[in-house]
Amino acid sequence: MHISLLPISLLVARALADGAAIVAAMTTIGNATVKLNSTVSSFPDNPLLDLLDVGGLLTDSISLLNDINAATHIAQASANLTLLEAISLAQSTISLASMVESTLTNIVNSKPKFDKLVVVSPVILLNLKSEKSATDSFGAAVVAKVPAALQATAQNLLAPIDDAFNSAIATYGEFAL
Ligand SMILES: *[C@@H]1O[C@H](CO)[C@@H](O)[C@H](O)[C@H]1NC(C)=O
Ligand SMILES: *[C@@H]1O[C@H](CO)[C@@H](O)[C@H](O)[C@H]1NC(C)=O
Ligand SMILES: *[C@@H]1O[C@H](CO)[C@@H](O)[C@H](O)[C@H]1NC(C)=O
Fold first, then answer.
1. Closest among 29, 64, 28, 25 to 145, alpha carbons compared
2. pTM for the full model?
C-alpha cells in the first residue's frame, strides 16, 4: 500500500511545483512588461535620434520576448494542472492581461514619439508581432495543461491579450511600407 501511494504523492508534488513554476514565469513576464512600459513612457518626445533610448527599448523588448519563450518551455514541460493550480493561474492571467493591455495602450499612444524617428516604429511593429506570436504559443501551452473543463474559460481569459496585440499591430501596421 505504502509503495503504491508513493508515486501518486510524487506526482501531486510535481504538479504543484509545475503550477507554481508557471505562475512564477508569468510574474517574470509581468515584470518585463512593466519595465518595457516604463521605458516606453520615458522615451524622449523629441525628433533627435538617441541611440541609448532606442537601445533601451530594444533590450526591454528582447528580454520580454525571452521571458515569454522561457515561460512556454516551462508550460510545455509541466504536468497537467490541478483545479487549484488552474485557479491560481487564472488570477495571474487576469493580472498579467491588465498589465499587457495597459502597456500596449501606452505603446499605441506613444506612436507619435516613435514616428519622429523613422526606424523605430517599423521595429516596434516587428517586435509586437514576435511578442504576439510568442504569447499565443505560451497561451496554447498553458491551456493544454489546464483541466479540460476549464480550457474554454482559460481561452476567454487570454482573448483580451490577443485583442490588444491585434489592435496595437493594426495601429503600427497602418504606417508600414
Ligand atoms: C517582480 O517585481 C517585484 C516588484 O518589483 C519583485 O518583488 C519580484 O521579485 C519580481 N519577480 C520576478 C520573478 O522578477
Ligand atoms: C504603463 O505606462 C502608462 C503611462 O505611463 C501608465 O499609465 C500605466 O499604468 C503603465 N502600466 C503598467 C502596467 O505599468
Ligand atoms: C492531460 O490532459 C489532456 C487533456 O487536456 C489529456 O488529453 C492528457 O491525457 C492528460 N495527460 C495526462 C498525463 O494525464
1. 25
2. 0.86
